[in-house]
Amino acid sequence: MCRNITVLRGLEPPATEEEVAAAALQYVRKVSGCPNPPAGAEDVFASAVAAVADATSRLLGQLPARRNPPTVVPPGRRRSRPV
């Protein structure tokens, strides 16, 4: 499993559309081996991200609740450290 993809199930409040989309983008980047869409394949790349995000949202909506929250906080929810 890609360590860059954060566990979204069991978050309080639940994962946002932006968090699901970010995880989908990371997944598509990982499996395609492309950090950015290849020239001429932007539509295919975007379609794959949308399909993965949709499947992820459905999955999270149908899984039973977790007993314990995830141990890692998604990047967008982390508090910035004082300088």
Q: Helix and strand string, N-terminal first?
A: HH
Strand content: under 5%
Query: What is the tally of helical segments?
Result: 2
Quaternary state, please?
A: single chain
Q: How confident is the prediction overall: mean pLDDT?
A: 88
Strand segment tally: 0
**How would you classify the helix and strand content by structural class?**
mainly alpha
What overall form do the CA principal axes indicate? globular
Distance between the termini: 33 Å
Low-confidence stretches: none
Spatial extent as radius of gyration = 14 Å
Helix content: 40-55%
Major beta-sheet overview: none
Task: Describe this protein with a few key phrases.
0% strand, mainly alpha, globular, 2 helices, 83 residues, single chain
What does this structure look like?
This protein is mostly helical and 83 residues long. It has 2 helices and no strands. Helix 1 (17-32) crosses helix 2 (42-62). It starts with 16 loop residues before the first helix and ends in a 21-residue tail after the last helix.
